[in-house]
Amino acid sequence: MIAKVQPSKQKSRSSFKRLLNYLTKELDPETGETHPRGETVLSNNLVGIDTAAAEMKGVESLNPRCNDAVFHYELAWPPGERPSRAEWLTVPCTR
């Protein structure tokens, strides 16, 4: 697995709602319709996809020193390596 950190592209604070839409929805360029981007795997720390943005905003508000709580990184696997949904769900959380 290769993790790549993306630099911030905007001067203003990020939005959890915009991030959630970016990660879970895509616009069909031909029809203009919005479709689900693919399977979504939520952290065990979130109640659900419908409340995820509000939950993350609530946690962000607990730290007044936080300037921008949205951090964007990409995960990529070498060619031929593709974890299954079961593997995603069974990865232990390390702290």
Notes on the structure:
The protein has helices spanning 16-24, 52-61, 85-90; strands spanning 2-5, 25-27, 34-36, 73-76. The chain has 95 residues and is of the alpha+beta class. Helix 1 (16-24) packs antiparallel against helix 2 (52-61). It starts with a strand and ends in a 5-residue tail after the last helix. 1% of the residues are buried.
**Amount of helix:** 25-40%
Number of helices: 3
Largest sheet composition: 2 strands, antiparallel
The N- and C-terminal alpha carbons lie at a distance of 18 Å
* Uncertain regions spanning at least 5 consecutive residues: none
Give the total of beta strands: 4
The strand line-up of the biggest sheet is 1-4
Keywords:
single chain, 95 residues, alpha+beta, two-stranded antiparallel sheet, globular
Write the layout of secondary structure elements.
Elements: E1 2-5, H1 16-24, E2 25-27, E3 34-36, H2 52-61, E4 73-76, H3 85-90
Antiparallel strand pairs: 1-4, 2-3
Short summary of the structure?
The protein has helices spanning about 15-25, 50-60, 85-90, and strands at about 1-5, 25, 35, 75. With about 100 residues, the chain is of the alpha+beta class. A hairpin with a 6-residue loop joins strand 2 (about 25) and strand 3 (about 35).
